[in-house]
Amino acid sequence: MKVLSVNAGSSSLKFQMYEMPEEKVLISGVFERIGIHESFYTIKINGEKIRKEVDLPDHKVAFEYLVQELENNHVVESLDEIKGIGHRVVQGGAYFDKTEVATDDVIAKIEELNVLAPLHNPAAIIGIKAAKEVIPNAVQTTVFDTAFHQTMPEENYIYAVPYEWYTDYKVRRYGAHGTSHKYVANRMNELLGRDDTKIITCHIGNGASISAVVNGKCLDTSMGLTPNAGLIMGSRCGDMDATIVTYMMDQLGVSASEMDTILNKKSGVLGITGVSSDMRDIDDGVRSGNERCALAKKMYVRRIIDYIAKYYVEMNGCDAIVFTAGVGENSVSTRRQIMEGLEVLGVHVDEEANNIRGKEGKITTEDSSIPCYVIPTDEELMIARDTYELSK
Ligand code: AMP
After folding, report:
1. What is the DSSP pairing of strand 2-8 with strand 13-19?
2. DSSP H or E stretch at residue 67
3. Centre of ligand 1 from the C-alpha of residue 163, in Å
4. What is the DSSP annotation of 71-93?
5. Angle at 18 between CA 106 and CA 38, to 5 degrees
6. Is 145 known to be catalytic?
7. Which of 74, 97, 127, 386 has the lowest CB atom count within 10 Å?
8. Atom of ligand 1 nearest to the CA of 377
9. Strands, E, within 159-288: which ranges?
């Protein structure tokens, strides 16, 4: 059975098609600059990468090109072979704790939550509607970034603000990256050979979050109402004194939406260094003696250690720590510094084993009290698995 994973952004559309249940990737690609001039798409098939410049006025046209490529490359002979299409949705609010079939009611609820994810949810709806038009016989599903975190207890998701903000305005912690945290936590349990585990999952990429996962269920997570909470990220500030926001709005005379842009796009590692939001550039800066890069790296690592320590205590112990996403999978020095900061818990880095990039492996010594692993994340596969279950 063929299943398509789709991740629609406001001007992009990423896709990956699988043969299920074998989980074999048949074709993948991305449409970029949809609705903007100079649009194009790239596809990967049989180890080959192809780029085409085409006019992409909207997502429906992107889906039409996608269908054309599937047929021209004989990935499918008929569109009826595509049984399921899974759509990534960033914000599912308190409505969704699992993947759902994209009924009109589900779409209406996603739309209602647009206010909490103004850039992402509308794009997902456009993607779902376009896919339904172009491939009408497939089961369309919605896979929520927030769903995995719905098992958090109340004390971990309520903010210490007037309670009416929660009841009347839906202000609470929802978390994000849930599909990734679930994927690596499940894989970690497979490696440990049991399900009754306490795992700390560190999804550290350009966006970054940490979760505490007990027996496969989320107990706590670092992102909040929006992704701008918890860790220091590429260009997001993460946790800070909330009053800085109103103080600096007064000082700078900026609007709420301008302040939102500063906190999401001009802060974090980029804000501290003024150099870049990319950890590779920060590492280069550290090597060449840039003091602000060194400071940013210290702060970045410190915050991750703080969260791991918090979740260790909250879970009353920890069976394994997982590193994933761009930095987690590839930055040997960041992982080493984090693990060195956990020495008081008996974590011991295996220098040689830690020298891996983009590959699964254990990176601590045998005598480490908590084993640490690198597990490359695969959100597309997780979307395909859920969609397969609802389509077969
Ligand atoms: P993601 O958001 O998961 O795609 O992660 C992207 C981020 O991973 C980039 O912005 C980099 O900061 C980071 N990254 C990727 N490769 C490396 C590397 N070799 N060393 C350090 N950071 C890396």
Report:
1. antiparallel
2. helix 59-72
3. 38
4. HHTTS-SSGGGEEEEEEEES--T
5. 80
6. yes
7. 74
8. 3
9. 198-204, 208-214, 217-221
The residue type of 36 is I
In the reported structure, the alpha carbon of residue 205 is separated from the centroid of ligand 1 by a whole-number distance in angstroms of 6
Q: Are 6 and 14 in contact (CB under 8 A)?
A: yes
The amino acid at 271: G
What residues contact 243, with CB distance under 8 A and at least 6 apart? Answer: none
Q: Which residues contact 195 (CB under 8 A, 6 or more apart)?
A: 189, 215, 216
Q: pTM of the entire structure? A: 0.95
Q: Which residue from 145, 278, 355 has its CB within 8 A of the most atoms of ligand 1, so it is best to mutate?
A: 278
Residue 284 to residue 286: CA distance in whole angstroms: 5
Index of the ligand 1 atom closest to the CA of residue 278? 12
Closest CA to 186 of 308, 306, 315, 320: 320
Which pLDDT score, from 0 to 100, does residue 119 have?
Answer: 82
Instruction: Determine the Cα–Cα distance for residues 120 and 362; give it in Å rounded to an integer.
Output: 35
282-314 per-residue burial string, b: 16 or more CB within 10 A, e: under 16: bbebbeeebeebeebbeebbebbbbbbeebbeb
Strand bridging mode 2-8 / 82-89: parallel
pLDDT tens digit string along 34-91? 999 999 999 999 999 999 999 999 999 999 999 999 999 999 999 999 999 999 999 9
Q: Whose CA is nearest to atom 20 of ligand 1?
A: 331
Kindly state the tokens that stand for 218: 């989320």
CB 304 within 8 A of CB 210: yes
Contact 40, 55 (CB under 8 A): no
Residue nearest to atom 8 of ligand 1 (CA): 326
What average pLDDT does the segment 328-355 reach? 98
* Sequence-separated (6 or more) residues with CB below 8 Å from residue 115: none
Measuring from each residue's beta carbon to the nearest atom of ligand 1, which residues come in under 6 Å?
205-207, 234, 278-280, 283, 325-327, 330-331, 357
Residues in the chain: 392
| Kind plus residue range of the DSSP H or E element containing 165 | helix 163-169
